[in-house]
Amino acid sequence: MSIQNIDVKYTAVATAENGRDGRVASDDGKLDVVVNPPKEMGGSGAGTNPEQLFAAGYSACFQGALGVVARREKADISGSTVTAKVGIGANGAGGFGLEVELIASIPNVDAATAKALLEKAHEVCPYSNATRGNIKVDLKVA
Q: Which superkingdom, per the lineage (predicted)?
């Protein structure tokens, strides 16, 4: 798999202090959150965590990609939602890995059309393109 060359239109900048048990903030101040490991991983669970932030970003980005595809296909996705579930666990090689489940509810199309739209959005979404071939990503219609 080759590295994509892109024409960068925007660059997000965020800085973390104290890793998974600290704070993350964007350079423009619009994001400033406390991060803590979840209780399931031995943390306090008091703040958000990187997996929740990744799930938020992926679901929002995928919803945007779904909109691009829907416009091309002239499909009505009004009232649709995309939920991302991001799992983290040991990868068996001494490190950790992620897996993602994307669940879309698209009330104004039939199940076959919804599945086709999800597959096409998966080809368009930057998060999907960044993770393809690296982590398991399951697409589901709600």
A: Bacteria
